[in-house]
């Protein structure tokens, strides 16, 4: 590409910070850098027309982890680590709300519910037995026990009749969140260039030379916020994890309120504008879903429809309006990777499917280590 003088001067000359990825983490990093350095030259690059990955494709859950997820984490992580993970999610959601405001997010604290299928008796019993212990562990974060039991008043079938509810969980409008984050970034004089893919980079003296599919440029510091796509350019322990979703057509009189998890969090659903948004199922084929391909599979889509018709809305004729998928970044540990790759290159990746909850704080952390 042949840049005009004005284009080059306005976008690519004398860059202090370049951020790769315009999702929650990347834009939060840009905003924190602007707060710290009001006169710095900051650029954000995005390979998609909209933010790739999961920032505009997630279910909009402001969640901290269902009780079965927390118990699963405690089998492989210390209590201190699990506490810190939940605390980071809490702080991240509060930071997101502070940065944008509840109205801009359409944030609603309607509670998050975990439901257990009839054949999950052992898991259900373990969760109920562990309820006092987990409440005691998490009480310092929420200032009161966050978990309680609730009867199934939603008409779900094929499940245990008691749900475990996290009363402080909520939901947001993902599209509005990203629209308002982008507006805030632009209002802080930070440009975003879309449809630009970084192909390689190398440090050279006091700068990092970056080659994209459109142009080459230099920047003093380079920050990667590419989550599930991190392994394309970085040697980090991050695996892509595809999350498939379906959305029903409008359902008159839909009474489902709040967010819902089942099967240890591998399935999730909510009421979205009078429709059911239902996603998950990668546990049906972990190997096939370890991909950066935005595709759909019959195996998972059929399972989602089966849960929809047999558990969530039994006996109802339901049409499907839309299907899509997003790409998360996961690994052997739930803690995100926030580190200096070198003196001038930094990354914040592996959000473990908790981007809404921890993305804002993780982006702030990325800015802090690169400052």
Automatic annotation (TrEMBL):
It comes from Poritiphilus flavus. Residues 16-368 form the FAD dependent oxidoreductase domain. GO terms for cellular component: cytoplasm. Signal peptide: none annotated. It comes from the Bacteria. This is FAD-dependent oxidoreductase. InterPro entries: FAD-dep_OxRdtase (IPR006076), FAD/NAD-bd_sf (IPR036188). SUPFAM superfamilies: FAD/NAD(P)-binding domain.
